[in-house]
Specification:
The chain is α/β, with parallel strands linked by helices. It has two domains: about 180 residues, no CATH class; about 130 residues, Trna Endonuclease, Chain: A, domain 1 (3-Layer(aba) Sandwich), CATH 3.40.1350.10. It contains twelve helices and 14 strands. The strands form three sheets. Strands 1, 2, 3, 4, 5, 6 and 7 form a seven-stranded mixed sheet that branches. Strands 8-9-10-12-14 form a five-stranded mixed sheet, sandwiched between helices. Strand 5 and strand 6 form a beta hairpin. The longest helix has 19 residues.
Length: about 350
């Protein structure tokens, strides 16, 4: 079985909900009558995109040829969903087709999604790095076995593994683009590091103290509740020095990377006083199931923060964290390459 990775910067397409994967290059047109000759495709791209940089053309040609010819029925496809840092796994169920009526990303293949919304942190570092390729479509080679075994029922291999990304047998330029440690991949690696460190270095109570400290770095006054009898509330936060002025924020903290369902969220909402004098904040390192997200959207006194959003807060307020926490999460600002690999 061949394993492919597909990136999409158009979340509104809802690839999982609509059962397909897609790539762009709509201006190149329908690829149905395309020959498998790479030089012919390069000429077609150059004619259709006279503004393209020379280095981008072989990369684009490699992506289009893979999507049109190399992907086969039954192949496994991995779709990383950036908004919540999860991975979706499916099986290719159709040949290439061109959806001419679609407003964008008309080059498509049908997919039967097998496992969806799986946190990236469940997998090894090397596997996470490999699916973070900067190219839209790429073949997963080094850690394909780990992903195949997971789809077949094995527990995710979150243990350490070498950070290796293989080259592929297209143009050298395309291969370099897949391996290139550009800004986006470095950011993903940093985000994974934050989640992984919080999971490994902190137990539940210490994670609650970290959340309270982060809220203080954000300008709140926060204190951790007693370990027993907290009623599902782990941290109490407020703006005024004495904690007398509403609203009071009740925080529940879950140091997990799995999904949080409605019952756990309802436990927090059940502790809130009516009238808006108390607000609920539910923080997890993982994700929320749809039933929990629905509750969050319908209640004005509740805010759900998933792992990806929590990392946003950590990075935004990192400089105001205490020395103890910075030692645990050693980060620094630097300039990195921000060139789009597919732009040449």
């Amino acid at each position: 079985m061949t394993v492919w990775g597909v990136h999409s910067d158009q979340p509104q397409l809802d690839l999982v909900g609509n059962g397909f994967v897609a790539i762009g290059w709509d201006d190149i047109g329908d690829l149905t009558d395309l020959g498998s000759d790479k030089d012919e495709l390069k000429e077609r791209i150059a004619a259709g995109r006279p503004w393209a940089k020379p280095g981008a053309i072989p990369v684009w040609a490699g992506v289009l040829l893979r999507f049109r010819f190399e992907m086969q029925l039954g192949d496994l496809v991995i779709y990383p969903y950036k908004p919540d840092s999860t991975l979706n796994f499916g099986r290719i169920t159709s040949d290439y087709y061109y959806e001419g009526s679609a407003p964008q990303h008309r080059n498509r293949r049908k997919v039967e999604w097998l496992k969806t919304g799986i946190p990236r942190a469940e997998f090894s570092k090397g596997a996470r790095y490999e699916v973070g390729s900067a190219v839209t479509l790429f073949r997963v080679r080094t850690h394909d076995k780990e992903f195949i075994e997971f789809v077949e029922g094995a527990k995710p291999a979150s243990a350490e593994s070498p950070l290796r990304t293989p080259a592929v047998s297209v143009d050298e330029a395309a291969a370099r683009a897949e391996e290139e440690p550009n800004a986006e991949r470095i950011e993903e690696y940093t985000r994974d590091f934050v989640i992984e460190t919080l999971l490994k270095e902190l137990d539940g109570p210490r994670f609650e103290h970290f959340v309270a400290h982060l809220m203080e770095a954000m300008g709140y006054r926060a204190q951790v509740t007693p370990v027993s009898g907290d009623g599902g509330v782990d941290v109490i936060a407020h703006r005024d020095p004495l904690g007398l002025e509403p609203p009071i924020i009740k925080v529940q903290c879950k140091r997990v990377v799995g999904g949080i369902g409605a019952p756990e969220v309802q436990k927090l909402t059940g502790s809130l006083a009516p009238g808006g004098s108390e607000l609920g904040l539910f923080i997890t390192l993982g994700t929320f199931h749809r039933d929990a997200v629905h509750i969050g959207r319908t209640r004005q006194d509740l805010r759900l923060v998933n792992g990806n959003e929590f990392v946003d807060l950590v990075l935004e307020h990192y400089e105001r964290l205490g020395t103890e926490w910075k030692r645990m999460l050693p980060l620094r600002s630097l300039y990195v390459v921000d060139r789009e690999p597919e732009a040449g």
